[in-house]
Write a structure and sequence with these properties.
Chain A is mainly alpha-helical and 190 residues long. Chain A is built from twelve helices and five strands. In chain A, α1 crosses α3 and α6 packs across α7. In chain B, strands 4, 5, 6, 7, 8, 10, 11 and 12 form an eight-stranded mixed beta sheet that branches. The longest helix of chain B has 40 residues. Chain B starts with a helix and ends with a helix. Classes of the chains: A mainly alpha (190), B alpha/beta (459). At the A-B interface, α1, α3, α5, α6 and α8 of A face α3, β1, β2, α4 and α13 of B.
Chain lengths: 190, 459
């Protein structure tokens, strides 16, 4: 199935994706093969159901948020291969850049993480949004009051301009000592 | 003169064909083999190796201008030898994985990811564990690849497995054409054998079905069934190697990993079983009905909850009757692509404390036995099989396993599954094979949520 995929993907498109995302030729071919195997309807793009058909993603507490990230990129009901690759490009290790690529910088990775929390897309994380995401991650194991106090503490520590919400700049500041490279990069073997 | 000559050659041709087929049937009846199929498969293997070296050289030339990523340099040595048991060669190194039963796991055992003894305050970066896990799983996950045919590492001269390789060099193209010719020439022979096998099945079950239930009937049934399955095996040019035949079951429950309805045929060449399975429609359903005329097979409808109790009861009765045939069960409940073993349903492990495990592994270079029921129907699958090179499989009869005191049926099932996976060189997965058709259950999220909550320090 791998080689059949490389025939369908045009050389020109491959080169464009390579320059845009920084993935190697071989990686793009392999990822295209994966894309087509997820595309059950063979329509050339993926729907939400196609993503959630992956069991390990469907049981991920933040599965819906991750899928949402792809659809924000495409701004559409479906995700095509270019958009798929652009999202994946954010998870490329930063160190592996020969030419500076603008998609896998520390800032882009932090933006991805920020958007996991920012449910309504208004570029601010409110207490309710934080509580929602906390709820997704812990399920029924921690009580409402305890979650509430965790949310309060988190916001007060990060919030510098006093609006009781976390903006992207405040988020970046809070991640100062976090090894974003290690936590948000995927190790490619080829 | 020409007419006479033509008639003579036709006559000779027909008689050789009939002789060959007759010989095959006779050999099947007595259970012996001339070793021709084994010779054929070893010749094929050397041709595949030739093809592999040619393609490797071609690919090297094509990608020579690709500058190697500094990232991949660190792992390049490992990636050459890296073969997951799944046979495929992974694109990424999984750092964090989640599972319905085991929660959060760190497959790469990275020291900086050690979540086991962690107890920390919540930090907004914690979301990154789930985000990275999710994206890793979108790139590569261990479940979805179980439900499609495995990708082969070396080309086996069938365009159905890899497209485009036949254009690599002239020699390969010639070999591929010859290969096509050979396979499609063999097809009519195989079809004839298949029809002989099926008609034997039809006739023998009809005749033996008329006898009352006495030991003679059971003897006859045994011989008839062995002959029928041997003929069917020869129709696919099957070369099956049986290991550990001293562990073969005589009475009791036998479990095996499931790849295709062919599993039944190759196991039935050696021993006679009672089958337990989902009722099917179409061609397969017809064959199942025929088989049921002379032996006590247990068929059920998976969706019928009542059926489950009836089946369990019938299983128990069957096992306790020493005169009855051993039962063959596939606890996965569905066909998996022979790279992994998925969750074993506990039903059969509740009925009996003694289980006879069997591991089946197919050599996919000669032809893929995996039946992807969502992609193709039975007839298409049979056609693919009959036009493949051969069907090469290894069967290991493992020593019987006994349930320990205080061991639950689920734990026992997992223990047996682990043994089968180990022997067959398959990946042991705890995911449910029913995921082929069903969606995940929301309750499966809880183990991961539990694991994460344990890490958090809460006042």
């Amino acid at each position: 199935m791998g080689s059949r995929a490389s025939i369908q993907l045009q050389e020109a498109e491959l080169n464009e994706i390579q320059s845009e995302t920084g993935f190697s030729h071989n990686q793009i071919v392999r990822l295209y093969s994966r894309f087509t195997s997820l595309d059950k309807g063979a329509i050339g793009c993926l729907s939400r159901e196609d993503f959630l058909r992956i069991p390990e993603l469907a049981i991920n507490p933040l599965g819906d948020r991750i899928v949402h990230a792809f659809f924000t990129e495409s701004n559409n009901e479906t995700v095509n291969f270019r958009q798929f690759m652009r999202v994946l490009a954010r998870f490329r290790p930063t160190k592996s850049n020969q030419n500076k690529n603008k998609l896998n910088t520390r800032e882009e990775k932090l933006k991805f993480a920020f958007r996991m929390y920012d449910l309504d897309g208004d570029d601010k994380i409110s207490k309710d949004e934080l509580l929602s995401v906390l709820h997704m991650m812990v399920g029924a194991n921690i009580s409402e009051e305890q979650l509430g106090s965790i949310a309060d503490r988190t916001i007060s520590e990060a919030d510098t301009d006093g609006d009781n919400q976390i903006s992207f700049e405040e988020f970046v500041q809070a991640m100062e000592r976090v090894d974003v490279e290690q936590k948000m990069s995927i190790r490619f073997l080829h | 003169m020409d007419g006479e000559f033509l008639k003579l050659t036709l006559y000779l041709l027909c008689s050789t064909v009939c002789c060959v087929i007759g010989l095959t049937v006779v050999l099947a009846a007595i259970g012996k083999s001339l070793g021709i199929r084994k010779l054929y498969t070893s010749v094929l293997l050397s041709i595949f190796e030739f093809g592999k070296s040619k393609i490797e050289r071609y690919e090297k030339q094509r990608y020579q201008r690709e500058p190697k990523d500094s990232e991949s340099h660190d792992d390049s040595d490992r990636s050459d030898k890296e073969t997951t048991e799944n046979g495929g060669d992974p694109l990424i190194q999984r750092d964090i994985a989640i599972d319905a039963y085991q929660g959060i796991r760190i497959p790469s055992n990275r020291a900086d990811y050690d979540l086991t003894n962690l107890k920390k305050e919540f930090h907004m970066s914690d979301i990154m564990y789930f985000a990275k896990c999710g994206v890793e799983t979108i790139i590569e996950d261990e479940v979805t690849k179980c439900f499609t045919a495995e990708e082969l590492r070396t080309w086996n001269f069938l365009t159905r497995t890899t497209h485009g390789h036949q254009y690599v060099s002239v020699r390969l193209t010639v070999l591929w054409c010859l290969g096509c010719l050979l396979r499609y020439l063999l097809l009519p022979f195989r079809l004839v054998l298949l029809s002989i096998g099926l008609s034997w099945l039809l006739i023998s079950t009809a005749v033996i079905g008329l006898l009352p239930d006495i030991s003679l009937r059971r003897q006859l049934n045994r011989y008839a069934s062995l002959i029928c399955h041997r003929i069917l095996c020869r129709a696919c040019s099957a070369v099956v190697t049986y290991h550990g035949r001293e562990n073969m079951v005589k009475n009791g429950i036998c479990v095996a990993n499931h790849t295709s309805p062919l599993d039944v045929i190759i196991l039935s060449c050696d021993n006679c079983y009672s089958l337990v399975g989902q009722r099917h429609g179409g061609f397969l359903g017809l064959v199942m009905k025929l088989l049921a005329r002379t032996a006590d097979h247990i068929y059920f409808e998976r969706s019928e909850v009542k059926d489950r109790f009836i089946v369990a009861k019938r299983l128990k009765e069957h096992v306790e009757d020493k005169n009855k045939l051993p039962i063959l069960i596939f606890p996965e409940g569905t066909c998996i692509n022979n790279t992994s073993v998925m969750m074993f349903k506990k039903g059969s492990f509740e009925v009996s404390d003694d289980i006879y495990p069997v591991a089946i592994k197919y050599d996919k270079r000669f032809g893929d036995a995996f039946w992807n029921s969502s992609k193709m129907g039975m007839v298409q699958h049979i056609f693919d099989l009959l036009t493949s090179w051969a069907l090469v499989a290894e069967v290991w009869y493992l020593p019987p396993m006994h349930r320990n005191e205080n061991e639950s049926a689920v734990d026992f099932a997992n223990r047996v599954k682990k043994e089968i996976a180990r022997q067959g060189g398959l990946v042991d997965l705890s995911w449910d094979g029913q995921l082929k058709r069903m969606k995940v259950k929301d309750s499966w999220k809880t183990k991961t949520q539990d694991d994460f909550s344990k890490i958090l320090k809460v006042d």
